[in-house]
Design goal:
The protein is mostly helical. It has a domain at 25-98: His-Me finger endonuclease fold, CATH 3.40.1800. 40% of the residues lie in helices and 9% in strands. The chain contains four helices and two strands, in the order H-H-E-E-H-H. 14% of the residues are buried.
Length: 106
């Protein structure tokens, strides 16, 4: 394996430092999210299974500097909504598009 680039090293160090001050949700908190959303995507309602890789813990606001990983900034989302459709879009705008209240960006 090739040596990491300076950029990769900076990203690794940055993630490690952020992890110290803004930890990811614990297993208990993740289980609470699954119960709260009744194993369904928060955006489209699609049933999700913990055993496959089609369920994501999405950040409502991915641009938060403080408490980005706090459980109050996380929702259960399917891979289509989170990965293909929402991406970095603000969750409120995404829901407006998803519910037909707003036209998708072109």
């Amino acid at each position: 394996m090739p040596a990491p680039t300076i950029s990769q090293a900076k990203n690794t160090i940055g993630r490690a430092l952020r992890g110290l001050v803004d930890r990811s949700p614990s297993g208990t908190e993740i289980a609470r999210l699954w119960r709260h959303f009744e194993s369904e995507c928060a955006y489209c309602g699609k049933p999700l299974n913990k055993d496959d890789r089609k369920a994501h813990l999405d950040h409502l606001d991915a641009n938060l500097v403080v408490n980005r990983n706090h459980i109050s900034n996380r929702v259960l989302a399917c891979n289509i909504c989170n990965g293909d459709e929402k991406r970095e879009t603000d969750w409120q705008k995404f829901l407006a598009v998803k519910c037909g209240r707003m036209k998708p960006p072109t």
